[in-house]
Design brief:
Blueprint: H1 2-24, H2 34-39, H3 45-58, H4 79-92, E1 99-101, E2 107-112, H5 113-116, H6 119-131, H7 133-143, H8 147-178, H9 180-187, H10 199-208, H11 211-234
Antiparallel strand pairs: 1-2
Helix pairs in contact: 1-11, 3-4, 4-6, 4-9, 4-11, 6-8, 6-11, 7-8, 7-11, 8-9
Length: 235
Amino acid sequence: MILRITSLFFLAIILTGCGQRQENHGSQYYQLNYVSDLCVKKNSADRILLNISSQRILASRPRQRGIDQNLLFRDTDSAFCKRMAAIELALYLFDYKFLNYDPDGKLSCNFLLAMRLDAISNLKYNLLSLVNIPRRIIILPRVSVSFVDWIGNLITVVIDLLLALIMLFIGQVIGFICHPLESLANFTIGLLYIPDYGIEQYLAYIKQVNLISSVWYTLKAIFVIIMRTVLFWIF
């Protein structure tokens, strides 16, 4: 009885959060519905990243301790945005994103998602993708219309598992080569960051872009994935 009450409590919190995200990120390429997202075969990562960043700017976010959090998302190619985009991709997209397409559906010049993210963001995305594998396996019977479809989806999950394992290490190297400053910023502190909106943005940035913040956001994302996995398994 206590387990079910606790599960319903966390389910309400998660669904409330998902509902807010769905309102703020209204795009066919940013699906919270795992059934619809399973049907999205193109890995439009560039478009997804742009949607996450642009919608973050438009979303009304409360001021925390006198710092406007929207300022952190003004620079859509910053280390902070890369890190947050990696977490959101892992949390809300069903399939693993390996290739990177531009808005026209063609391979982007950054043809790998690993080339779009920095080293720390690559580590986060692949680690969270691995943590998400059990949930994906539990979901499969619900999104498969036949046994053959279930086998095909299971093969996709296995391939994604292998890709995440490989890119967990190789992705960091690629990310560091493509984005060395953002990689160092997410690992240490973004002291070299040049803000476009004054000292307030700079102070917000160095408070959020560092190793402690990176670990904290990762742990929160892992907790959310584990809770979703447990809830899907129970219900």
